[in-house]
Amino acid sequence: MRKKPKRLKVYKIHHEDPEPEIIQRAGTIIKRGGIIVFPTRCLYGLGADAFNADAVDRVFEIKRRPSQKPILILVEHRMQLERLVSHVTPAATRIMDHFWPGGVTLVFEAGLTVLRHLTAGTGKVGIRIPGHPVAAALVSSVGRPLTGTSANISGEPGCQCIDDLKPQLASQLDVGLDAGPLKGGAGSTVVDVTGDMPRILREGQISEKEILNLS
Fold this sequence. Notes:
The protein is 28% helix and 19% strand. By secondary structure, the protein is of the alpha/beta class. It has a single domain, classed as DHBP synthase, CATH 3.90.870.10. The strands form two sheets. The protein has a six-stranded mixed beta sheet with strand order 7-4-6-5-10-11, covered by helices on one side. The chain has a five-stranded mixed beta sheet with strand order 1-9-2-3-8, with helices on one face. A hairpin with a 6-residue loop joins strand 10 (189-192) and strand 11 (199-202). Helix 1 crosses helix 6. The longest helix has 12 residues, at 20-31. The radius of gyration is 17 Å and the shape is globular. The model has no long low-confidence stretch (mean pLDDT 93).
């Protein structure tokens, strides 16, 4: 007889004013190497300690994500970039000033502290300050960068509602934060800021024109 997948433990959480005790509980799980599913502006994501190699490996395994595909990370504030990137260009600073938190993921030259797993050997790392209140509170509670990859099997659509998580994925997670249905649609705009001029890798919430008009 086939064993049923483990049922994911889910906490309901307010999407604009997240309950501190739930955030603290989820943050503790992440600090212990766990992986949770949490809301971002458009889709649910998988959160793990971005400095914990075993936890990051689990994210790749759960998503069945190819090792050559990098995973972006979420930070609480721009001061954390000092540990994560080797250089911040003037163009990157202008984009952060205008569009963070949320909206834009910036791709930097990775610093020495960034796990190679996250960069997929590219030497670059995508970083964003989250705009969703739950995601922002979670990053703040953990006090360390978190993975911000979508909660899906690699190559499949993202998840707007936590109840729509694939059972084989949900059964491998430690806890879920359910803020209700999310808006879906385009994710963050991904911009490579390793050169003098920003280069759009994926157009999303913020248009290419808006980004390039800052240059």
